[in-house]
Every structure is written in C-alpha cells, then in structure tokens.
Amino acid sequence: MDIFSHDWIGFIITGFATLFLIGEILVNMRGIFALLGIGFITVYFSVFLATDSLLIMLIVYFVGLFLIIVDGKLLNDGTLATVGLASMIISVALPAPNLTAGIYGVLGVIIGGAASLLFLKVFKKRKMWSKITLKESLTSEAGYNSMSSEYESLLGQEGIALTDFRPVGTIQINNKTYSAVTNGQWIEKNSNIKVVAVDGTKVLVEKKQG
C-alpha cells in the first residue's frame, strides 16, 4: 500500500517539517533540526509536484520561514511573521491532491509551528532571542538607567486623576499628563493622587489620604 495515497500523511510530513525548521530557529541544534525539516518538506513537495513546481513551492515555503525569522529578530510586531505563516500555509495547500489533503497539510504547519515552542523548555535558546527579550535586566548599578530624568522626578509628587483608574488611567502633575497604574486600587476621576513608585516609564500611584 502506498502510504502517500492517504490524505493524513500530509499532516505528518508538514508537521514534522515545520516543527524542526522553526525549532532550529528557536534553539541551537547545530543544523540537525534544519536538515530534518528540509528533508521532510522536500519529501512532501516531491510527492505531489514535478521538479519545476517543486522548486517554486520550496521557495515560497522558505520565504515564509525567512519572514518569520526577520520579524522575530528585527521587528517583533508580528506583521511579517503573519505574512510568513500565510506563505508557508499556501505553499503546502496548493500542491495537495484534494481539499482534505490540503487541510491536513495546513494543520501540520500550524500545529508543528506551535509545537516547536516546546523545544524552548528542553534545549538551549539561541542568543538572538535572549537579546530580543532582554533577558538580562539593565540596572542602574550595571551602568544603565531605565528611567528618564523626567519620570524619575515624579517619585513622591502629587497630582490629580484625570480619568477613573480600573486600575489604569491618566494623571496630571505640574500641568503635564502621564499614564499611570495603581496596585489594583480603583481611583475615581478628579481624586488627589501621589506617585509611590516609578519603573522606567511605568508610574505607580495611590489615592492621597486626607
């Protein structure tokens, strides 16, 4: 029996391909995951496509993967990642021999991509992702200062709540407005407030008593 005649086989192949390729991006596996992923996705396309079309779809698939890398490394707003995921989905859906097989292939990409996040719990994360997430905190003692002098000067000052806090709102101090939060406290509009903590541009306030 030809295993590739089963519609569900596309789910297995595209799932493993995406799992390993995105896994290689997330964790440092010295190219092992990349080779496995390339092998799986090449098998998928070679089963359903002639040589010329195979190359085109491989390009579309890997362009999508590249866009995800660019988004994660440079932009971090999800726009290119979304376009990249769509490109990968289209590339596996079009070669499928029927609708059911196409759906299986698409599900493989989605689930494989999501499952690749599990590698972060087992293997060493690539350095570029650590830099993006600013894993190491930048403290004043280390020669960094996360607070601008303006926000730092707000500590201890009093002002007025321009909006209701539930628990986020807007305050006015010295005729300037700032976004602020409370420690879970609800504060009514026009209440007198006091800044009790500042962390970067995050301002923590509480209702002034008396």
Describe the model:
With 210 residues, this protein is α+β, with helices and mostly antiparallel strands. The protein folds into two domains: 130 residues, no CATH class; 59 residues, Nucleic acid-binding proteins (OB fold (Dihydrolipoamide Acetyltransferase, E2P)), CATH 2.40.50.140. Helices cover 49% and strands 15% of the residues. It has seven helices and five strands. Strands 1-2-3-5-4 form a five-stranded mixed beta barrel. Helix 1 runs antiparallel to helix 2, helix 3 runs antiparallel to helix 4 and helix 4 runs antiparallel to helix 5. The longest helix is centred in the first third of the chain and has 25 residues.
Q: Secondary structure elements and their pairing?
A:
Elements: H1 9-26, H2 32-48, H3 51-75, H4 79-93, H5 99-115, H6 127-132, H7 149-152, E1 158-161, E2 168-173, E3 176-182, E4 192-199, E5 202-207
Parallel strand pairs: 3-5
Antiparallel strand pairs: 1-2, 1-4, 2-3, 4-5
Order of helices and strands: HHHHHHHEEEEE
> Could you estimate the helical fraction of the residues in percent?
40-55%
Structural class: alpha+beta
Tell me the major beta sheet.
Answer: 5 strands, mixed, barrel
Q: Kindly state the mean pLDDT as a whole number?
A: 84
Q: N- to C-terminal separation? A: 83 Å
* Total domains: 2
Biggest β-sheet: strands ordered side by side in the sheet: 1-2-3-5-4
Q: What Rg, in angstroms, do the CA atoms define?
A: 26 Å
- The coarse overall form would be elongated
Q: Which parts are unreliable, with pLDDT below 50 for 5 consecutive residues or more?
A: 134-140
List the total number of helices: 7
Hey, roughly how much beta strand do the residues contain?
5-15%
Record field, number of beta strands = 5
